[in-house]
Design goal:
Layout lengths: L3 H26 L14 E6 L3 E3 L6 E3 L2 E10 L6 E12 L5 H4 E12 L9 E4 L7 E3 L16 E6 L4 E13 L2 E14 L10 E4 L2 E16 L5 E13 L5 E12 L1 H12 L5 H25 L9
Antiparallel strand pairs: 1-4, 1-15, 2-3, 2-15, 4-5, 5-6, 6-7, 7-8, 9-10, 10-11, 11-13, 12-13, 13-14, 14-15
């Protein structure tokens, strides 16, 4: 019968080998970085301007009425450890006393696969922008509602759905919010002729037998959780107008200074704060590896130690 000390040594050896295996293999099986979670519940960004100005498409009148802009993101299959499919709905709705169909300014739906770490699209988006019209394939370059995890104090190209292209968002400020680091990025949009970007019934209009073109301009402030790259707040100041070919402003199209509610911002921040950068898990794996190595050595020494020979 094996002595108790040798049995304990074998058990220590087995435990040590198991811990070494965990320390080596677990980081390969379990993601320890702050990539996009697949179970996000707070994915709606609602910006409101109670004093917005919009132009009616059907008769060209300009209304001073509140506007609600909403971005809503769903995470859809297929997903895996590195990628996910997102569907982003974009709507602008007036708060005026009109029929629902007249209150809707514009709506579009964007569906595309993205990299869960960088937030970059892996293929062009399928876009539905007009009822009854076929979908379009539009490249989505840069970030949008998901910045890179472990965000840096640098400049990122950020997508603008009106332009269907990116403009730079420049790092502007570091904010400590409850012990969590938030980065603010400023995105400036110079007046750009949208009709030169792509064709749409919304991008041109007629005025006194002259063609006017939609110009998109403004700025956004993106507030991004540094660890996860999740957007926790957005401020928009948009000035869209119709102008002639040389850019001279003729009519307002959308004047919008949108802000999110405190409740909306708090919910997004709380959700982002729950995303870990994986540092604790990585420390635990290193501890398991070191402890396993020590236990394995002790177990080996005990298991193969020669027993003293009893003298009679």
């Amino acid at each position: 019968m094996l002595p108790t000390t040798r049995i304990l040594s074998v058990l220590l050896l087995g435990l040590g080998v198991a811990l070494v295996a965990v320390g080596i293999l677990a980081p390969r099986w379990v993601n320890t970085d702050a990539r996009l979670p697949l179970d996000l519940s707070q994915t709606t960004f609602t910006l409101v301007d109670d004093h917005a100005r919009t132009r009616l498409i059907n008769d060209g009148r300009v209304l001073d009425a509140g506007v609600v802009r909403q971005w809503h993101m769903d995470i859809l299959p297929p997903t895996d450890a590195d990628t996910a499919t997102v569907r982003i709905g974009v709507t602008d709705v007036r708060k005026s006393r009109q029929a629902d169909v007249d209150r809707l300014i514009q709506a579009s739906v964007w569906t595309y696969p993205l990299d869960r770490l960088s937030g970059e699209a892996l293929a062009p988006a399928t876009v539905s922008a007009q009822l009854g019209s076929p979908t379009e394939s539009v490249p989505v370059d840069g970030a949008w509602l998901k910045f890179p995890s472990d965000a840096q104090q640098t400049t990122y190209e950020v997508f603008d759905p009106t332009l269907r292209s990116t403009t730079p968002a420049v790092f502007s400020e570091e904010i400590d919010r409850g012990g969590r680091t938030i980065y603010r990025y400023s995105q400036e949009i110079k007046p750009t002729n949208v009709a030169e970007k792509y064709a749409s019934v919304f991008n041109t209009t007629q005025k006194d037998e002259n063609t006017l073109y939609l110009y998109h301009s403004g700025n956004r402030q993106w507030y991004v959780d540094q660890i996860s790259g999740l957007v926790v707040d957005v401020e928009e100041n948009i000035e869209d107008y119709f102008g002639d070919a040389d850019g001279t402003r003729r009519e307002d199209a959308l004047i919008f200074h949108g802000r999110m509610s405190e409740d909306n911002k708090a919910a997004l921040f709380e959700q982002a704060s729950a995303v870990s950068d994986g540092s604790v898990a990585r420390v635990l794996y290193r501890v398991a590896l070191a402890a396993g190595a020590v236990l394995s050595v002790v177990g080996l020494m005990g298991a193969f130690r020669r027993r003293p020979v009893a003298l009679h």
